[in-house]
Design goal:
It contains two helices and six strands; from the N terminus they run αββββββα.
Length: 122
Amino acid sequence: MPDEKNFILDRRRFPRVDVILEIAVFSSQRTLLGTGELKNISASGLKFKTGVDRGISKGGDIIVSFTLPDGPAIEKLHCEIKTAQKLEKGYFVGARFSQLKAIDMLRDYIEKKINSGKKTPE
């Protein structure tokens, strides 16, 4: 498994774009844990805020689903939780995609957003 240092380097290697989208969060056993708000996304991972108070821990596995505006529905994408900041209610989560297909599915969408000037500042 990649370590946290490599996760930080990936954030620089793969540009992030800001989004505000609803995200569904599932356990690794495919049980719906709840929903949240997707904040940004890259070809290697995503960051979201959720009111989910169980099943979220650094190093844990989750499955997420969301639909990109003017893009594809991303269904049941496996992720590894790299950061889990506890909030008053829920968590702010940084996760890395565990499936290589995510890079292919998201690359075109992200490049289109970057080219339109909507890149997240580093």
